[in-house]
Write a structure and sequence with these properties.
3 strands, alpha/beta, Rossmann fold, single chain
Length: 185
């Protein structure tokens, strides 16, 4: 079967998991701030988070982006026992960037002393609390995000790709039709 002719390429709502993913996507579109929080066990983001992000890639700029995402802000919160969780943060940040979100902040910390809050020393708890409060203070007043340079560059590269593909298509693909409908090509 030619995958380009599959239902999913016509509309993301035709995905067999749409009943689970579309409510999350719709909530993301309405939210002022997106928060992604998860523990890290094997140096990368959890399979459940990755599965969700994989489902959302139909909204990446290279496919059918939603202009509401260009003004979103996001925070990624990660914890691990001791090893760095930067790669897990990067997994999520990359997906968010391709969704069109420029303002993405990450906060990760290693618990080191134990696997749950009760096992941590007061010193460690206070350090984590300070980091969380410092990050939260950046979001006390609402400011919409803006399309940063990197997202603008990616968007314009995708725009050139869609213009090129459109010249070769007899009928616009769902992706190209989306770009046409939004006045981007």
């Amino acid at each position: 079967m030619n995958i380009r002719k599959g239902k999913f390429f016509k509309d993301g709502k035709l995905c067999p998991h749409a009943e689970y993913t579309m409510p999350i996507w719709n909530a993301m579109l309405k939210a002022d701030l997106l928060v992604f929080a998860a523990p890290v066990y094997a140096l990368h983001t959890r399979a459940q988070m990755k599965a969700l992000l994989d489902h959302l890639c139909c909204h990446w700029m290279v496919h059918r982006p939603d202009k509401a995402m260009f003004t979103k802000r996001a925070v990624i919160l990660m914890n691990s026992i001791g090893a760095s969780n930067r790669e897990a943060q990067k997994d999520i940040a990359t997906s968010l960037q391709w969704l069109g979100i420029s303002d993405v902040r990450c906060l990760g910390f290693g618990l080191i002393e134990g696997v749950n809050w009760k096992e941590l020393s007061d010193k460690r708890k206070n350090k984590i609390n300070r980091k969380v409060i410092n990050l939260a203070e950046k979001y006390v007043s609402f400011k919409p995000g803006h399309m940063g340079l990197k997202v603008r560059v990616l968007f314009n590269i995708c725009k050139m790709i869609h213009k090129g593909l459109l010249k070769k298509e007899e009928t616009p693909s769902a992706d190209n039709q989306h770009w046409i409908d939004n006045g981007w090509i």
